[in-house]
Amino acid sequence: MNCKRVVAISFGAVWFGGVILGLGMLLLFDTAPGAQGSPPPRWPESSTIPRTPGRATLIIAAHPQCSCTRASVAELARIMAILTGRLDARVIVLSPTGVPRAWVENELWRSVQEIPGATAVADAGGREADLFELETSGHALLYDADGNLRFSGGITSMRGHEGDNAGRSAIVALVSGRTPAIDRTLVFGCALRADSKGRE
To answer: pTM to 2 decimals?
Structure first.
């Protein structure tokens, strides 16, 4: 066999193997869930997040620099469109000490503010995330009108991917008075904070 042909075949095999490896690693990243934490079964009394009497509240944690969370915000928009007037959403956006305002109130923040019924809330130092024991950006918690936790998990099927998912279905069912197939899902997103103590 021609030497150049052997080199070309070898190079092609190595290139193809690298592509397969890269795709595999990307898939593993997209489907690797984040930390779930242990959200409180009752709305924390010391939380300063406003609630509307007689209405359920959806809490979503967000790291403002997490690109994966854009998909969660898109799914939030779909949820709020389906449940118009029946649900309040509060997206608590991490605001570490010393960062500029623009770092927090960026495109992700503005996208949330454009959703009817949803409000972005700057979470100074991660205080609210600590109260609700949220560790991963995109983690959603549904509390009913009485302050009881009804759902905990993600509202995307993998990192950065929009589309039908069990989290969205569960929230819509619960607010609509139906029993969902599940009330817990995996969360796909970036870690909210750099260390286990919850501080950047």
So the answer is: 0.82
